[in-house]
Amino acid sequence: MKIAVTGKGGVGKTTLAAGLASEFSRKGKKVFAIDADPDANLALTLGFPNPSTIKPLIKLKKLIEERTHAKVGSLNPYFKLNPRVDDIPEKYFAHHQGINLMVMGTVRGGGLGCTCPENAFLRALLSHLMLEREEMVILDMEAGIEHLGRGTARGVDQLIVVVEPGRRSIQTAYHIKDLAKDIGIENIVAAGNKIRTDSDREFLITNMPDFQFLGFIPYEEKIVEADLANVSLFDLNKDILPEIKQIAGKIKERT
Length: 255
What we know:
Rossmann fold; globular
């Protein structure tokens, strides 16, 4: 099962991605959790020890140069488009409590030079994970589907768009849905987050009639507490979000 989680920034994509990864791992699944958000905090949410020391793969310059046959940051237009990546999960992923984590890193920003070899490396790795591996993959993306190309999209069993009660969040969800369909993703569903009242739930259902909702995650103050304390949400309370378990159950029904 390959699951991609996306949505407008700040809606709680990482909370859901981490919750699903933890739940499936507890059920005995081998899980690959992929942090593809530039504001990477999936490791922290999952409770990985010393999350700030996990090096994004985009920064492994020597490895990328070795696999793509091109110097990172150079203007050399020739590099290997399909580098070897099948050994990367075992050698370079972080491992904790049954979850295998990769932080992709971002190629944006000044001083990065030519990003073509890095992009080729990450694209090849993501394609390998989504299309060739049998493990469960949970991809925590930025607000959009930029990391998914037409080829990789073939491996996505379900795209979950996280939304919160608000017009901008809904607008982003519909934009994502259009983009996803353009590259061939058909199984697109939604998950509501930060739900305080029944009216919040009804607001999303009424304004998103084209989406099937897997569930609605209530607003939880401990999420804010965990963020302020710089600790894992699940360290404060293992059962803090029971709705995530129900969402995971509905995903299983689709396998």
